Write the structure tokens for this entry.
Amino acid sequence: MNQGNIAVLLSGRGSNFAAIVRASRRANANFSVRLAISDRFDAPGLRRAERFHIPAQYVDPRAFPDKAAYETQICELLEKERIDLVCLAGYMRLVGPVLLSRFAGRILNIHPALLPSFPGLDAQAQALRHGVKVSGCTVHFVDSGTDTGPIIAQQAVAVHPDDDVDKLSRRILRQEHRLYPRVVHLFCAGRLHIQGRHVIINEE
Ligand code: GRF
């Protein structure tokens, strides 16, 4: 792939989206962000996309009879823009069979914990409640489960004794913003290969 076309699906703030866009605008980037899609009209990430002059699209799930119809609409938008890779970034929905099959092996997600620990909602709070000393973030391929797909890359972060959810989330988020663009780069360089549960990262 010479220049990968990326779409980001988001439901909220969009700071990972912004990190991916910034990385795409550096010299030698091998991808560009073509589209942001949100299932929430009021997602701040959509406003960020406008500021970056990236097409931003709100798709209202309630406007469709079911998830398959909703995802068919999303797939049409993605295919129209010739999207190679879909990055979920704070997208608060499980991906269904329509999107999964039409973009098989081409959907990534970032999660604010070291999977398989603390999947699902409020990962940082789960980690704090459990009393772990180390947490972090994970970028993985998306499958039909909640944060269960093959792991591509992880970055550990120390948990401090006086951490609260905000402090830990901020420390993890800084690493998310570094890790996600790196993985997008690897994908677009054709260096990621899924073998069962394992993701092989080929040397350049
Ligand atoms: C991030 O913590 C990400 O790991 C999780 O949702 C949050 C999204 O934040 N999946 P943002 O919208 O990218 O700022």
